[in-house]
Amino acid sequence: MIKAENLRKAYEGNVVLHVEDLTINKGEIVGLVGNNGAGKTTFFSMILDLIKADSGHVLSKDADVSKTEDWKMYTSAYLDDGFLINFLTPDEYFEFVGGLFNLSKNDVMDFVKQFEPIFNGEVIGQKKFIRQLSMGNRKKVGLIGALIGNPEIVLWDEPFSNLDPSTQIRVRNVVKDHSENRTFLVSSHDLHHIAEVCTRIIILDKGKVVRDVQNSPAMKEELFEFFEVE
Amino acid sequence: MKKPNFLKQAWLSFRRSPALTQNLAQTIILAFFGFYLAASFLVSGLVAGELIREFFPGKDVLGMAGAFLIYYFPIDILTRYFMQKFPTMSIKPYLLLPVSKGSMIHYLLRRSLFSFYSFLPLFLTVPFFFVEVLPNASGTETIGFIALVLGIIFSSNYISFWISKASDLNNWFSTILLVVLFTFLFLEFKGITSFFPSLETAGSAFFSTPLLWIIPFAIGGLVYLYLFSYFKKFLTIEQEAKKDSYLPNVSLGFFSRFGRAGKLMDLELRLLLRSKRARSYLLVSVAFLFFPLVMAFDEEAGGEFYYLLFGLFMSGMIALNHGQLMLSWNSLHFDLLLSRGNTIRDIFRAKYYILALSCIITWLLTIPYLFADPQIVAFCTALVFINTSFSIYAYMVLASYNSMRIDPNEGGALNMSGFGAAHYLIGLPIVAFPFIVYYGGKFAFGETGGLLSLLVVGVLGTIFHQQVIDACVKLFTTNRYKISAAFRKE
Questions:
Q1: Is A116 found in the same domain as A70?
Q2: How far apart are CA B56 and CA B64, in angstroms?
Q3: Cβ-defined contact of B271 to A87 (cutoff 8 Å)
Q4: Which of A120, B159, B185, B428 has its CA 20 to 30 A from that of A99?
Q5: Is residue A79 one of the residues assigned to a domain?
Q6: So what's the ipTM on this one?
Q7: How far apart are CA B55 and CA B174, in angstroms?
Q8: A20, A76 in Cβ contact below 8 A?
Q9: Residue B402: φ, ψ to 5°
């Protein structure tokens, strides 16, 4: 589904990402973990062709993402507020995104309403612009917005931060429940959530892939061990 | 309780603002503009006495000066309302510091007084004061003159501060107030009402009656106290989050014929109506449509120069105002547009079609001028297609080469963020091009040849819009990383 080959990015001589060869298969739920500066967001941005690779490339369905635009029709992401349109209400935002995939307003709202436990009555139907929402609610809008239009690949950067504990669990369940025919890439600092939901875990450290394993109970221990401090 | 040095903080935020550190050309141009304005005021101030004697023979010069000053008062309020950026020093970080709220608000209110617009009238009145008032007027009148000038600056600053605050909270109140002010000025300029002559007596009376001197200061002071108590009551973290008026969903079903680009056009339309800066551009553009009502064109030689200029701007005002920031309007959500559900071509198509449509709509609005001056309509019609082609193309090419981030909800008409040196330079060919075509056509084919050449060139240019869009997409695609990185930079 996604293949990164010899992907390299450096800022002023500092290599922030160097992925030699990484293939992500269809249907995987990939957890991307690593301390600050490990290159998680950079990697996501390069999958989305938002920043230029110094060398190498990302292939999506065998096509270079920097040379084609086909991937834009089946890939979605929520990395930060740059993926929200702050002068729309949440309903209008969902409608706009759905509209890009020819979904009617009713279709979109029906789809979104199944996530009402996450929104907790503070998002859907509110006459408030996204810029007036709290950080947590903005995140909810972005995460759910990224599921509209039945994308085959979903990239979520830190979906659990800024959310209350119950919502974190609900969001985690969304990943599980909506992973059919879909590839999820989720980055997080929350090892518990990652270990709980992902089928494959990749640890990035200083821009390099240092572990890449299928999830298993043994892996969970290794994961925690890796981030242990003396 | 130690007061933090607010002035120093303000200075640092000015010194380190990206607009100033990154954009030398703009700073120089703005400084030059300010210098020009100040210099021309200075010269006018020096000769104002002579002018009054020449145009109003037999009138009392000082009384007339007073009349002009009182007359200037509502104009000053309006100018400040549209141009001045009232300091809403980002207060959040200071709210938690042990600083008394009162001192913070006093600082906020006082700082607004020290703006360029407060000093501007001084450039006119100070030379006038030395040339005319000091040698000729009595002691009381001299002090009276100073009182009037300072009083007007003082009160108009706080009145327009008040209006701009009120318009943040309640649109109706300020709209009515502005309409009343505008109507008054319009009726007066058109000579339908004439308060002006009676203002001369009011001016003379003001200068010689010390008791009246208190009035402007009292008005300004009362507004100051009102603003102070208002901020004191509402300046909390919760209230600082700006209130937005909710606007119902406007969506033109018509756009759906443009496919995915239509969805983006819908988005642009909502941006136009909902963000402060885009809205103020829109208001200025619509107001410009009424310009010929206040100004009569000279039918003699040189008249066509003005017809050309206004024809160009009247049908293209929205497209030129809004189009100059092209992609910057979407800078806050550009990553979404770049990565999801639409192609770069869709973005450019949406931009082109909505701007071209705005030209057509404003052109339709100029048709009623047929009853006043058919020439206006003739020039607008010849120029509308120049706008839907070359004018918009110029901004499209510029945007696909280089763009800057803006927050569309910040600031009014004179917010210059997002402008680079290229924006000032590109204006020149946009204006010069139709002139060259017109005079070239007139020279080659005679009287009506000029208008016809404009029409033909414009229509031809518009026909090829798909090709231009494709070229811009190509150019943008090569520069996309640079542009989207600039949009992410706060």
A1: no
A2: 9
A3: yes
A4: A120
A5: no
A6: 0.94
A7: 36
A8: no
A9: -160, 135
Residue A86 tokens read as 């702050």
Kindly report the CATH number assigned to the domain that includes residue A174: 3.40.50.300
User: What is the DSSP secondary-structure string of B414-446?
Assistant: T--TT--HHHHHHHHHHHHHHHHHHHHHHHHH-
Q: Are residues A229 and A156 in the same domain?
A: yes
B262: closest CA of chain A, how far (Å): 9
At CB < 8 Å, which residues of chain B contact A? 241, 244, 246, 249, 260, 263, 266-267, 270-271, 274-275, 332-336, 338-344, 408-409, 481, 484-485, 487-488
Q: Show contacts of B86-94: CB within 8 Å, 24+ apart.
A: B86/B112, B86/B161, B86/B164, B86/B165, B87/B10, B87/B111, B87/B112, B89/B6, B89/B9, B89/B10, B90/B13, B91/B235, B91/B240, B92/B237, B92/B240, B94/B4, B94/B6
Residue in chain B lying closest to A48 (CA): B339
Chain B residue with minimum CA distance to A128: B246
Residues A90 and A131 in one domain: yes
- pLDDT per residue of chain A (230 residues) written in tens, 0 to 9: 899 999 999 998 899 999 999 999 999 999 999 999 899 999 999 999 999 999 999 999 999 999 999 999 999 999 999 999 998 999 999 999 999 999 999 999 999 999 999 999 999 988 888 988 999 999 999 999 999 999 999 999 999 999 999 999 999 999 999 998 999 999 999 999 999 999 999 999 999 999 898 888 888 888 888 888 87
Domain of A144 in residue numbering reads as 84-151
CA distances for A221 relative to A216, A226, B97, B399, angstroms: 9, 9, 45, 52
Q: At what angle do helices B24-55 and B421-445 cross, to 10 degrees?
A: 60
